[in-house]
Amino acid sequence: MPKPPDDPAPQRVQHFLYFPKAKDSKAVADQLSAQGFTVERRKSAEGKNWLVLATHTVSPESQDLDSVRDTLERLAQAHSGEYDGHETTVTPAPG
Fold first, then answer.
1. Integer Rg of the chain from CA
2. Furthest C-alpha separation in the chain
3. Inter-residue contact 44 to 50 (CB < 8 Å)
4. What is the value of pTM for the model shown?
5. What's the DSSP call for residue 1?
6. What's the pLDDT tens digit per position in 20-29?
7. Which residue, 72, 67, 95, is CA-closest to 85?
8. Which of 33, 72, 75, 77 has the maximum number of C-beta atoms within 10 A of its C-beta?
9. 47-82 b/e (C-beta count within 10 Å ≥ 16 → b)
């Protein structure tokens, strides 16, 4: 059954987590990957920290984003890291 045209498209959300130690970034990346996130791990732009970029898709009417953010903040803190926010992009609905 096709979606109604006014049905909002899903949103891709990227979360940015930074860690001073590679082993902490790997532990968090592995954990997030096991939870269904698409994860990219690399040295951050300034080169002194490790970036874990965790991506997932949410529906616009979902209230889950706040709880995901809280979970990621706690996870980063538990591994001596920092949660640095998220970015949202709208995924076009399949035609």
1. 15
2. 50
3. yes
4. 0.84
5. -
6. 999 999 999 9
7. 72
8. 72
9. eebbbbbbbbeeeeeeeebeebeeebbebbeebebe
Q: From CA 3, how far away is CA 18, in angstroms rounded? A: 38
Cα–Cα distance measured from residue 41 to residue 49, given in angstroms and rounded to the nearest whole number: 11
Gap between the terminal Cα atoms of the chain: 13
**Helix (H/G/I), strand (E/B), else coil: 9:** coil
Number of residues in the chain? 95
Which tokens in the block code for residue 26? 């790997």
Taking alpha carbons only, the member of 18, 89, 74 closest to residue 29 is 18
